[in-house]
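question for whoever is on the cluster today: can someone run the full assembly for these? four chains, 348 residues total. i dont have access anymore since they changed the login thing
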Amino acid sequence: MKADKNTVSQLLKTARGQIDGILKMVEDDRYCIDIVQQVMAAEAMLRKVQTQVLSAHMKTCVKNAQTDAEKEEKIDELIQIMTRISK
Amino acid sequence: MKADKNTVSQLLKTARGQIDGILKMVEDDRYCIDIVQQVMAAEAMLRKVQTQVLSAHMKTCVKNAQTDAEKEEKIDELIQIMTRISK
Amino acid sequence: MKADKNTVSQLLKTARGQIDGILKMVEDDRYCIDIVQQVMAAEAMLRKVQTQVLSAHMKTCVKNAQTDAEKEEKIDELIQIMTRISK
Amino acid sequence: MKADKNTVSQLLKTARGQIDGILKMVEDDRYCIDIVQQVMAAEAMLRKVQTQVLSAHMKTCVKNAQTDAEKEEKIDELIQIMTRISK
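^ ran it for u. tokens below:
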């Protein structure tokens, strides 16, 4: 992976901490809407990870692809990811 | 919370397990696109949690609201959530 | 429909105007990224329509449902819509 | 634009036709949920346009970028678009 390891790991650990918090909220029978808002916050954190990893990927692997075959492979992967994201 | 506690906790623990897996992938310097795909899978798991909690909320709290003031409060909360989701 | 007809029609006509603009951009062979940005703007306009119509629906049809059967029907419809939106 | 003009124009015209249909539904005071479903169908059509245009853009403009400066410019544009899409 080409993104900064520390940054990405930190974001992932934050998301994991949020999920632990949500598990506790579920245990404590907290209000549904409060739980949903925390779930959305954790999703936003994962989307940040996704953006960071994809950006770094494009700035290195995609940019540095040399042969036509290599470029095509990288771009096909990106198109697949983008199509899934935009669903 | 009105959704089934066991189901919701299980989904959250699965998402947490996925995040642990992604942290290990980052540590092992795995390929960016593989990491992104796992992040998207964890997001999908959290969206499942969100849908389950919101559905149960509507089938109980929203459905059972009695006074007009209570109904309005529940519906305003839902509109806010829905507006954020559809962004 | 319970949302304000004029507001909703105006938003829809704006979206239609944006699509006409995009058709012209395609005809004129404009730059892909500029086209994509206009497409995203038109999607955002449609999401605004969606939010307006759903909000008004909840504030009237859902709020005023009387019998349990009627409430359940309205809530099931909402859950289906919400599940599709959050995909 | 690098995507097939006829295909893209056809999708855009379909979306415009859907919007005309929704305007008529609003005029005829049709049921909110039916309107929302049609709005979502039009959004899906625009997302198809977006995917087509972006895919063609990547397969040509991004792939054929020659200098490092050119590659960086194309990739920065893509990152911006991808970040907006994944919001």
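summary bc i know u wont read the tokens: The interface with chain B takes residues 47, 50-51, 54-55, 58-59, 62-63, 68, 71-72, 75, 78-79, 82-83, 85-87 of chain C (CB under 8 Å). Chain C is about 85% helix and 0% strand.
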